[in-house]
Write a structure and sequence with these properties.
Strand content: 25-35%
Bound molecules: 5'-O-[hydroxy(phenylacetyl)phosphoryl]adenosine
Number of helices: 12
Distance between the termini: 38 Å
Radius of gyration: 23 Å
Shape: globular
Structural class: alpha/beta
Length: about 450
Amino acid sequence: MQAELWNDILGKFHPASAPDYLPVEQLRQVQFQRLQAIVRRSYEHVDLFRQRMDDRGLKPEDIRSLEDIHRLPFTVKNDLRDTYPFGLFASPMQEIVRLHASSGTTGKPIVVAYTREDLEVWTTVMVRTLAAAGLHQGDIVQNAYGYGLFTGGLGAHYGAEALGATVIPISGGNTERQIMILKDFKVTAICCTPSYFIHLIERAGELGVNLKELPLRVGVFGAEPWSESMRQYIQENSNVEAYDIYGLSEITGPGVAAECRCHKGLHIFEDHFYPEIIDPETGAVLPEGCEGELVLTTLSKKAMPIIRYRTRDITSLTRQRCECGRTLCRFMRVGRRSDDMFIIRGVNVFPAQVETALLQVEGTLPHYQILLTRDKGLDEMEVQVEVTPEIFSDTLGSLESLQQKLEYSVEQTLGLRSAVRLVEPHTIQRSEGKAKRVIDQRKL
Ligand code: DLL
């Protein structure tokens, strides 16, 4: 049998992927039962949720059909910040076996928790993600998502291991070593952000390594927006089939949705995550096919169930059957957000965090702009900030020391290195409405 066909059959029939093909009525039944249970659990264990339900005069028993989900209150990122660190947990700490964290809108991160059962579900949805990308036992997977508080590394790691593949837990960075291992270990699949893979392609070229000659055949790319033209570039320059995978810490991490071999949108693992699309301005639920903000409800999370989470990611849903045979609905690739968060080298950044970092240092004015560029696939960030007239007319030495202090402060706050450029007062364009803080010149 042809290797490709074999891969596909193995992928398609991986036992963990069975729910991908559930008859729709059965899927709705599973969703409804899980929704009722999760609403009850949240009501009983999460103060914020109970208060919001009580304010609306709603009780868990009012959820009598799947459509009743529309009556439930939304959850937003600030709710996680306001209840920092553990206020939304629905399980006692004795049952929580893992914590992860991601950037919040200010200096404090948002914290997410998992029980052992939650980790099992997360692993299963990652197995389904990787199987949909045609991975199977015998694959050698280089996992270049960051390990640590970021969910990418451990999420992909446990999924690949449970699939039966061989995992190389290399984490992010150290590009030359990544290329050496890709080559020497005969790696067949890589997991990382798409922009980092483009950087790998370019660096490999400089080092005289032709990725097209390696056994590498699949890329599992996500954690940031990317485009069809990036996919084309990757496929043409590496012969790697590029799959888009989506997820967010608040919901579980990677493993919320993933492309299949048809590459026509991302299948949502609907038996665990219930999707809706809303108008980001009014909150009204939009019909299938309309573009709007993706809202997700965790249907099986124990430690931290999240009801109607406003992801801020803009996309549209389709329930049309996919040629791959999965009955799961799909959303189109996420290209933008409805808030000002941007993602650089896989790290989520809010302009407000940069502002906080700048204002912690004396001598700057609250006029700044963030310039994002991409050099050889690698994201660069420069913060331009106006300094006070006194500082500006001071000696070169004091300007330099101010610049260093600012770079340090930004790095401490974001966990990310950024260049800081000091500019004269009144050089940054003033806006009559919302200040334009971010100039994104990266070509997606
Ligand atoms: O980025 C989880 C993840 C890790 C997904 C590895 C895929 C692969 P957070 O750090 O919480 O979690 O960031 C979540 O990243 O709301 C989107 O704005 C963006 N994002 C994630 N995947 C994609 C994607 C992880 N495939 C935020 N396309 C989300 C576009 C994505 N944006």
